[in-house]
Amino acid sequence: MEDKSAVWQGTLALMVLQSLEALGPLHGYGIARRIEQTSGDLLAINHGTLYPVLLKLEQEGCIASEWGVSDNNRKAKFYRITRSGQEQLASETRQWEQTAGIMARFFALRGTAQ
Amino acid sequence: MRPLRRCWNRFLGLFAGSRRETELSDEIAAHIEMQTEDNCKLGMPPAEARRAALVRFGGVEATKESYREQLGLPRLETLVKDIRFAVRTLRKSPEFSAAAILSLALGIGAATAIYSVADAVLLRSLPYPELSRLVTVSIDGAIPAPMKEILHRESRSIERSALFTSWWFNLPGQGGPERVPAARVSAEIFDLLGVRPQLGRTFTTEEDVEGRDNVVVIGDALWKRRFGGDPGVLGRAVRLNDKVYTIIGIMPPGFRFPEGPEHHAYVGPFPPAEMWRPMALVKWEQTCMGCFNFAMLAQLRRGATPAEAAAELDAIVRRHTPPHPGPTGLTILSLQDAVTQKVRAPVLILLAAVAMALLIACVNVANLLLARGLRRQEETAVRLSLGATRWRIVQQGLIEALTLAVCAGLLALPISWAAIRGLVALAPVGTPRIEDVSPDPRLFAFALCLALATTLIFGIVPAVLMASRAPGSAIKTGARSIGGRSRLRAALVIAECALSLVLLVGSGLLAKSFLAVSRVHLGFRPENVLTLQLSLPEARYDDSHRVSAIDNLLARCRELPGVTGAAAVSTLPLSGEAEGWGLVAEDHPARDRDITARARGITPGYFRTIGTKLIAGRDFTDSDKPSNPVAILSVAAARALWPGVAQPLGRRILDRPPVTVVGIVEDTHASGLDAAVRLYIYEPFSEFVSSDFALTIRTASDPLSLAKAVKAEVRKIDKDLPVTHVAAMTQVVADSIAPRRFEAVLMTLFAAFGTPG
Q1: Is B35 on the interface with A (CB under 8 A)?
Q2: How confident is the model at residue B751 (pLDDT cuts 50, 70, 90)?
Q3: Which of A27, A59, A75 sits opposite B9 (nearest CB)?
Q4: Rounded to the nearest 10 degrees, what angle do helices B94-118 and B335-375 cross at?
Q5: DSSP states of B417-481 as a string?
Q6: Please, which pLDDT band fits residue B466 given cuts at 50, 70 and 90?
Q7: What's A98's domain CATH number?
Q8: B246-301 pLDDT, tens digit each
Q9: Would you state the pLDDT for residue B666?
Q10: Which tens digits make up the pLDDT trace of B545-581?
């Protein structure tokens, strides 16, 4: 169970970093919406699970946070990606692409055999 | 890097915990508000919109919980909780905690203190570069100057050698003259020791000659104390014992040679030298083979062992002394041993005692912990059955033990510090390098580790035993103790008793020997006797002048109210010893070996004043003249010279002219209560050349009440004379056995501490 959640946390963290890199500073709700929209509602997460991931990323120095005011004049905490977060994102993206590429080739291999 | 940073931030999170949690609550509230608003925009009724938002978010409390888990360091928090719990448990049973912490702290503190002292006075090497080649050479405790020359010339194992002897200088100053411990040393001695002055130079061999020897080297402490550390003192003239000397060098800090104990075996407590003047032997010293006035330091040739050197030198001594069957008395000691010889046995005894006391403390605490562990069986059993893991129970035991040991360690620090101060203050005069004692962190660490090990082992054993048993059975047996562990306790108690017994017996023996020494028949009656030491500088007082000054002073003292007798003596009993004097009876000239007696110059009335019984014959009188020399012998000396003769009055000792024995007095323990009775020969003060002497004054009441009046009389005679060592004779006696009392008291303390209450 722990392993599964670790993988899930890692994937979620990567999505958070990518969202912040693409859209600039966002609050927690904004990040959750962005992930939902991008995944086309395929990935229905409990928004609550996002917060421990945000804390971990902040502790690692990948993101930074500060209190600000949202579009509809509400006090909210905004997260932004840091330099170190961008490096992390770049290296993890590369790893994902590699993994995805290898997996794709595996599946393609099975397809030709049939 | 990143995990490290995370760790650090989590550590910081420990302290920001509550603030972060309120922030999180605000953040979650805002999140749900925003979602609710968006839901409303999609057309949901407000209540439905809020419910949907909450569902979408998931469990608020679960989120907070997993957030919290990541916030600080949960392991560390448990640890802090355990420590708090341990402290609380220790506080709940204050008697147990106090007993355990105090006995460990005392054990660690005492062990650290004694070891620190042992390290400074005994174990640490003297700071000389070629220490292993340095030895002292002596014959019955000292050596005559010509014998040193012979040994140096004929021995192949000695490369270089030097003479030294202790000396006092009267250094004039604003507050009256100060008596500074000094040494007469051969010029080579600084090279032998391998020590260079920090400023200036030491003396040359040309200056080590009578008449050209008016140069002096001073020590760092004296330089700073009396000359304010001014480098300009080099070349300055100082008046010492009324002779003018030029200061030519300043030795580096910590240079202390001779320190005192390496000296003639018979010299009493002597502080380390602070000034050095050339040996510059005078004519009679160069040729007198019977003048055992010096100590000899030698550097052995590379590769020569002290044992070989001793054999070689022994043969040389035999060739140059009249043949006799007994041993020559030649002794070679490494310089390190010579300095530490007197403290070795007592310090080793104390070390053993304190090690015992520390062991007893550990056994004691082990026992306490075990007993408590057994009492807590039930509690442990309940916790186990409520689902506590075994590891948690062991961990808690561990932390409790650690807390105990750390508390003890912290308490031991001031204890060891105070104990060291106490030991230094109480240590007998003449303990070498006692000033260098400082708490030794290595031993402190060792003692602390021992305490840790003890508490860990015995704190955890009960916990582990309990944890390894099935919870049900533990509850069933309840708090009844289990066979195996009560055997362990019995073993501990036995060990403790055995260790205490050793300590008790040891301290009993020391106390007994102390009592025996303090009950020795002194041969004089120290009650109601005031003593003080004086020095009449040779330059201002020639022999006749000195005698008249002393007679004058004694006459004035006798007239003081409350004084019943006053006399002078060249060396006060128990305050050091004079050189040996070989005696030959006129009618037994061909004895195998000289009879060595210690000489004392005394004024008439000395025996009455100090309380030594005249057994036969008469005391000296003012009419004894140098043309017809007379002497008084102690019983033992008379017996040694004329065995079988009951009262050898009127017999003569070979000398030029022969000395007639006119009286016999009882034996005295004048050179140490624990030393064998020595032979004494007393001569009239007028015939005994001694610039240093002591006054003894018998009083009707408390002797110290007359100290002021007597000092005033001395000032009337000569205001520049330094008066030192003003004390009641009883104090002089007590001081002479101070080392034994010191050991006995310490041992008794350890034994008292180590004995199970």
Answers
A1: yes
A2: confident
A3: A59
A4: 170
A5: HHHHHHHHHHSPTT-TTGGG----HHHHHHHHHHHHHHHHHHHHHHHHHHHTS-HHHHHHHTT--
A6: low
A7: 1.10.10.10
A8: 999 999 988 888 876 666 544 555 678 899 999 988 888 888 777 777 889 999 99
A9: 92
A10: 888 888 999 999 999 998 999 999 988 888 877 766 7
Is residue B129 within 8 Å of residue B299, measured between CB atoms? no
Q: Residue ranges of the domains in chain B?
A: 2-72, 94-122+341-517, 141-328, 529-722
Contact status, residue B171 vs residue B225, Cβ threshold 8 Å: no
- Count of CB atoms within 10 A of residue B496's CB? 21
Interface test with B, best of A59, A78, A84, A87 (most B CBs within 10 A): A59
Model confidence band, residue A90 (pLDDT cutoffs 50, 70, 90): very high
Token pair listed for B582 = 């070989």
For residue B599, the one-letter residue type is: A
**Residue owning tokens 């012979």:** B150
A2 pLDDT tier (thresholds 50, 70, 90): very low
Flag if A56 and B70 touch (Cβ within 8 Å).
yes
Subunit contact B6:A29, Cβ cutoff 8 A: no
Q: What are residue B160's DSSP bridge partners?
A: B299
B chain contacts of residue A48, beta-carbon cutoff 8 Å:
28, 57-60, 62-63
- The number of folded domains in chain A is 1
CA neighbor of B570 nearest in space, from B413, B690, B718, B421 = B690
Q: Do A61 and B2 touch (CB under 8 A)?
A: yes
Residue B390: burial class (beta carbons within 10 Å; 0-12, 13-18, 19+): middle
Interchain proximity B23–A75, CB inside 8 Å: no
* pTM for the model: 0.60
The beta-carbon neighbor of B6 closest among A49, A52, A59 is A59
Dihedral sign computed on CA atoms, order B502, B508, B510, B513: negative
Give the span between the Cα atoms of B579 and B516, in whole angstroms: 28
pLDDT at B216: 94
